[in-house]
Amino acid sequence: MDAVVPPQMHTPIGDPVTERAPVAYETLEAVFEDIRSHPLYDHELHGCLNCGICTATCPSAHYYDYSPREIVQLLWTENLEGIHDAMQEKIWACAQCYTCAARCPFQNSPGGLVMILREVAIKHGMQSAKDALKPFTRVLMKVISTGNQLAPNMITGDAFPDWGPNVSKVDAPLKLLRKAIPMPTLHTLDTAWEVNLKTSIELYTIWEETGVLQQLEAVDPNLYDVILDVMDEKRSEYQDWLDEQAGG
């Protein structure tokens, strides 16, 4: 009697060009589960006619290897490998203008789905998330230290080289323009407006309770440590102020 030969097991070889190790299926499942369990997932994805209206009207699709329709199709068909691949680069090309959501006949929101994919990429500490968020370090530090996302003197061509060569055509005399704004608190170039300590503490608490800081730690541990120091300093300063009010 002939011996029973077990079926040959296929061994994934990964990418033959880069020789990257294949992503474990358990990892793909874990990533997709985090995507599917997001509270906004069912709100943003309803189906897909594959009509392509979202891609046809997408500004990013004209300049990058990005298609809103592809994102919807990958999620709708639960293509785990394709989803993971898109999270390595493509999802960071979306400008979050939500033109796709306004035009979709099924009321899908590819832009909203991309936002979910970005959150999950950050949660899993993907290199694409680290690379995409690195340029925004100074913006985040601005939020932490002043409560403002951007100061007027940060909006310059040198600060945003990806704006392209035509940015010089829209460059403006900031000091002159700021004087034209009627609100006295907006005349400063260092920060758009002053945020009091209590508001700052409330922001810190929100970021802690919602897991934002934990996600930041996965993406940029050094920045996370700096932000904790700033938060501790402001909280201490606020407590000192409270003690002074109680003693007075």
Protein described:
The chain has 13 helices and no strands. With about 250 residues, the protein is mainly α. It folds into two domains: about 25-125, Orthogonal Bundle (Fumarate Reductase Iron-sulfur Protein, Chain B, domain 2); about 135-245, no CATH class. Helix 4 crosses helix 7 (about 110-125) and helix 12 (about 210-220) packs antiparallel against helix 13. The longest helix is centred in the last third of the chain and has 27 residues, at about 220-245. It is globular and about 65 Å long.
Tally of individual domains: 2
Q: Portion of residues in helices?
A: 40-55%
State which percent range the strand residues make up.
Answer: under 5%
The poorly predicted ranges are none
Number of helices, counting only DSSP H or I runs of 4 residues or more:
13
Tally of extended strands?
0
Straight-line N-to-C gap: 98 Å
Mean pLDDT: 81
H and E string: HHHHHHHHHHHHH
Category from helices, strands and their pairing: mainly alpha
Q: Quick one: biggest sheet?
A: none
Rg (CA only): 24 Å
